[in-house]
Amino acid sequence: MKQETGEVPFSLAGIDHIVFIVDDMQLAMDFYLNVLGCQRGYAYPELGMEQLWAGPALIVLWDQTHPGGIGAKPPVAGGRNVDHVCLAAGPFDHDQLRAHLARHGVEIEREANHGGARGLGHSFYFCDPFGNKLELKGPPPHPDL
Q1: pTM exceeding 0.85
Q2: Which regions of the chain are under pLDDT 50?
Q3: Which domain holds residue 40?
Q4: Please, which residues have CB within 8 angstroms of residue 101's CB and are 6 or more apart in sequence?
Q5: Tell me, what CATH number does 34's domain have?
């Protein structure tokens, strides 16, 4: 990746959510609700996924043993069980972001409209140079809805 000298075509607003891969949803829910005091968010039973509020951000638990959790890779010994980190961004032009990432040799794995701590927004998924998956998620198109 080469260093750019110009402006980045988006502004970061913080971490939107982080996705932890688990293999025992009940144990995970008990820990995050009862030990850390997270609050229940949305549930996606068809995916084996639960969202929990941790302040203004979300912790998403993804059960890789659930039939809908087939995209979740099995947990790795030693605790490296993070699927991806989602970075919340301010409004940005999608074409400018695509061009920006391409200039830096960053391949977009996929794009989608996904939910998160701020609601639905357009997301770009790509990896950092070390293979860590990142999601850059724009704000909801209609925050007042």
Answers
A1: no
A2: none
A3: 12-137
A4: 107, 108, 124, 126
A5: 3.10.180.10
